[in-house]
Hints:
The chain has helices spanning 2-17, 69-97, 113-120, 198-217, 261-265, 275-283, 310-321, 328-335, 344-357, 373-380, 394-406, 413-427, 469-475, and strands spanning 28-31, 38-46, 50-55, 58-63, 123-127, 132-136, 151-156, 162-171, 221-225, 232-239, 242-249, 253-260, 286-288, 293-296, 361-365, 386-391, 437-446, 451-455, 465-468, 476-484. By secondary structure, the protein is of the alpha+beta class. The chain folds into 3 domains: 2-92, no CATH class; 99-265, no CATH class; 275-484, Cathepsin B, Chain A. Strands 5-6-7-8-12-11-10-9 form an 8-stranded antiparallel beta sheet, with helices on both faces. A hairpin with a 4-residue loop joins strand 5 (123-127) and strand 6 (132-136). It is elongated.
Amino acid sequence: MKIYRIHLVLLLVCLIFLPTYSFAQDSIAITQIKSGKTIQIIPIKVTSESATCRYNGKEFTLPMDSLTEASRQQLEDWAKSSASASHETCEKINTAIGQPLFQPGTSLWLEDAAEVAGRLKWKRESLTKDSSSFRHYPKPSYGLANAHPYCCTLYGGAEEKTTSLSIVFANKGDYGSNVGQGEDHFKPKGNLPSASSLNGAIQLDIKAISAALIEALGQPTEQRYGEKDNRRKVKRWDYDDHAFILSERENEYAHMLVVPCETADNEGKVKFVKDQELRQLLSTNITQHENGDVYIDNIPMVDQGPKGYCAPATFERSMRYMLVPADMYLLATIATKQGGGTNTRLLAEEAKRIIRSKARRIKDLSLEKDLSIRHISRYIDKGVPILWQMASLKKYNDAANQLTEKRKSVEDFGEWATTIATEAEKLAPDLNNLDKHHICMIIGYNEQTSEIAVSDSWGPRYGLRWVHIDIAKAVTSRGGFVIDL
């Protein structure tokens, strides 16, 4: 109680000595019982036990029983009115965007990511000890803010609370794309339509989304968002502690973020993690088993979905794992051809620029010359995954799927090593068609059995597969990359 009285005394002093303050329309007067003094405040949150208020930019909390009955009644009336207004605004926004994103009186950032994703019917994509994600590739009939999104992603952070949403509308990689999903991505689907109207599609989406948000939240403000070369001019709408960030890049994409207002105020900049802290964090992700398996856990999964985005998805996984913010779609627009298919070299250069801006380093690996357990273990043993360029052949995938399933019931790994070495010797010569270009991650190894652990960006089912090193060598194409410490 003493602390609250001190707060109130300080505020009274401010009233006497500070210039006249222009209060907002929702400001109200409250009076403390003990002192009998009255001050004008802006209420922020009111419960049956306390009232959080703001005066002159400063926030403070007072117990309700320290205030007069008239003051408590005013605060309670404000709370009811605020709840009603919040409910109306919430419904208005949900109607405008066409999806049940918000719950009345609740911040997304206080809700479990799984609960928000459940309302939206977006499927879980990834769950690690300190992050989660939910991704949805909508059908053509799916609408959001008067436009059709191609990819919707919801991210969760510590304690699985929602941290942000990323929604991509018309974009270079998706426009006209008709490639398949997962392993089926490599099956041809026919010719792609002309790219001539891509920018027209982007502009239509920007206008439609803007109109929906203006109807619900009024006119936007304009600001810069992003870091260094990624800074771009955006439109911003605020709803309580949520900021809608709408951006476009000519002939590239239309994109909307939903982030905390604090993140938007900071223009999307994120806190830098020192190398020493990152080393310690990565070391906790190394899993070892008695059979000799050593692999990295807690790598975010990114499902590349119905497009040729294996490279952007794999880079996003690796970058986020190394605490460098990344978005598969925004990476893809830099180096993706109309309708899908990525120039990995251009993508790597873009990723290098972003990674270096965070004082990390990415380097090229000559895996086509030296794909060995010894080489791989140098990185895996410190918790660093390898980005591996290879050919995703049907025979390779069949072998990886079958070996991964069989090894679950293996009891004698010495015998297993002999068996798979013989099979690899027979299969390797047939893996000579390297035109099915793919990139995935090497996340582990078993020195005793000469196996490596591989993770593809095709969803949780492909998060961990094992292949013999000789099979891996046979399909290695153009080397790889590593984000190192």
